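Model it.
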Amino acid sequence: MSIGPRPYNIKYRIFVDRETCTQKFEEFIRISDNKKYNALFYYGIAGIGKSKLQRKLQNVLNEEYPEILWVSADLRNPSYRNVSTFLVALRDEIEKKCNAKFYLFNMAHAIFWKKSHPDIPIPKKTYPLIKEDSFFNSVINVLNETKPGPLGLIPVKLIFDIINKAPDSIRRFFEEQAISIDELASMEAYEIEKRLPGIFADDFTSNLGMNSRACIFIDTYEALWEGLRGKGSFHEKDKWIRECLIPNMKGVSWVMCGREKLLWAEECDEDWKNYITEFRVEDLPEKYSEEFLKDCGIEDKDIRSAIVKASEGVPYYLNLSVDTYEQACRSKKPEVKDFADTKKKVFDTFVKYLDKYEIRALNILSVPNSWDLNLFQRLMEKFNKNYSPDEFTELIKYSFIKEDTDDNFSLHQLMRKSLQEHQDPTYRKEIHLFLNNYYSNKIEGLDFKSITQEHEIALIEAYYHAKEALNFEDLGGWVVKYTEPFNKAGYWKTIYPMIEDFVEMLKREFGPDNIYYGIFMKNLAYLNEDLGRYNEAISYYQQVLEIYEKNMGKRILENNALVVDDHAIAMVTSDLANSYMAIDEYEKALTLQKNALKLVQNKVGEDPLYIALIQQNMAMSYQYLGQYDEALELGQEALNAREALLGEDDLEVAITAGNVAVIHQQLGNYEEAFALAQRAFNINEKKLGPKHPVVAQNLSTLGALCTQMDNLENGVKYCQRAVEIAEERLEENHIIIAETLVNLGSSYQYIRRYDDALEAYQRALHITEYNLGSENSKLATLLNNIADTYRMMDNYEKALEFYQRALNIARSCLGKEQPMVALIMNNMGKLYIDTHEWEKAHSVCQQAFDIRKKTLGTDHVDFAISSLDLGIIYGCLGRRDHALTLSEHSLYIFEQKLGSDHRYTKQAKLVVDTLKEI
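Modeled.
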């Protein structure tokens, strides 16, 4: 930097403005005692001074309301954007200001953390209590000695032993809590996380009393949406603050700052109009801008007037003007003309008083989105060798440089834009190329089973710079190469924006009929399928078919024998059919699959591998249509062919094995189904890693089978593990999460944890309706399960409501004579049996019996269930002989299919023995 004296104490610039904002805040504080929830939200454009306004409001509390405890958190720090780490940050701030002890919260958080990261030791620095409470240090040590995943347990007894040896005050504290350690230990990580706000609030109240006054500041609220705009529901992103934090901390005042109005009352819950005030932060009035500039040492009234006029009350430009003034003072007396007319003039004047190396440093730093010291040094060594890395600490003192996270910095966007407007495009492209290589090297040769969040960030940054640095052909190659491991690992939500962006670039570059556009659009369709966005996938597949048909006979790549032909059309047609299956269009899917199979079979030198693929997909259509014999025949044929062509341990073979397992499951062949599902799981876990979304699906299937086979303990464990993986790796509303939750709910239902079952089902219901709408066979299955749970809880009115809704949907989506319809009707019959409404019970159970006899045959487990229920009804109606015949047939099937120890077999034997005694 320029040679000159350096101040040893930097004066922090605080705006002396915001009289109206401050007045609104004081009104807010005064009325907070009269509201159970109280929130004030300031919103305004970037650079308007919201962060400094918060500091001023905090000073107001310090000076005028010293009895109010206040703490703050800035969401620019990514780690604060989820509930658990946010609460840890608040706890740390509160403990610094008062002698508070968050005993239960710390315990709950430690158990939550260990359940979330079973293979990683708990970081002791997260828990300040360790410094003064040896008992908590012992608890952490005990937790770190176990791996409490789905197959392990939290050592509750050891924790109680430690607490019992703790001081009396600590022991009494834990004895008096509403939630116990063993309850926490029995919960899943996501269940604990949902309760953390309430536990935090209880500890807060225990420490500070019911009538304590506190104020929590949240800054940079818009950071919650960073990188997530356009993905899912807008208001899902801050739901944990709106619905989990604020309602659990009654009496606490919340002051938040962000760029956009929240609209909680308008779009979420109109009741918020009673509890939240939203206030726009306007441009600074001239008199306050004047005071600010004068406070910063600008004595010349004419210069102050010029700055106020040029800056138009935007604090960013006022700050930049002060920087410019201070720079100018080093070499000359500043003049009015340096600040007059436009904001651009202020920027130009600021740059004018920097030396060429300082200017070059800022220009370089306007290219990356952010940088740390290491990247800064690398950039300077490459592009600005005469600028010493030691100047870093001086550079970051400028007001337009902000610290985003610990040791990570960025330029204010307005400053960045101003710098970019003056850059040589060629020079800028060189920097982009360097940064693309810098981030690409971080993910070069990446093992897809070892991907971390750091790798995700590197990929996102590398693509940003690749777009600016590479020609179009090289960019396409880069996208294919570097997204492939993330795609294979199931990081679909990470790569989707890149593929989508590149597809749009292809369309602009080559037009909507170009074959390359079609090829990449097919990849986009695949990703939409993976993400559970089936309607979007269908739209893309249909466009791909149109493009392929227009390019029939053309080579896909130069010097490549691969051309767009019937084979290529068949493959896209088969993919389109898969998406139709996902939205219950089974007949349409089957028609498309038959067309695809015909195209492939008619091709000279037909490819048996692709024939097997289409047969596998057709098998699933037949299975969904209830045509199980056709499904099993085709599925087994496809499995045999793929094993012969690919080997027994291929990932594609695992897919087919898993599909055939589902068909056997529907047929009641649980042993065969379990063996195939276990095989699919073993292959996928080995080749994809233990936390891949596909592995979650395999585990969920195994859990469902265990539940059906009466292995209830393993059923719960498998299903819990499946949900954990799915929630960790997928977007919060992904349909796979719903599928794993359905099986988890079923496993809870059979061990009589009805409340847990309903919670799982309700979450699955929300996700399913979000993705597939209110008319879908998956929804019918889920509603039937909810009804079953209410029936088992003796809430017959609620159960009947859900059964009827499920039945209407199943008939509408699948037809009147389909196994799913029979399942729901038979369960309704069970309800009428429970309520002794024998005529109604007989009517619906007989219909279910007839449908199952026609579609499943008389040796199917489901038919045996209907037969037994009819036997019970006839027995209660005094028709013993008919009842005994039906019940004995059921017992025979259960013994053959399920074994003598299964709950169904035992129930049937009891019914038969009872009838024989009559």
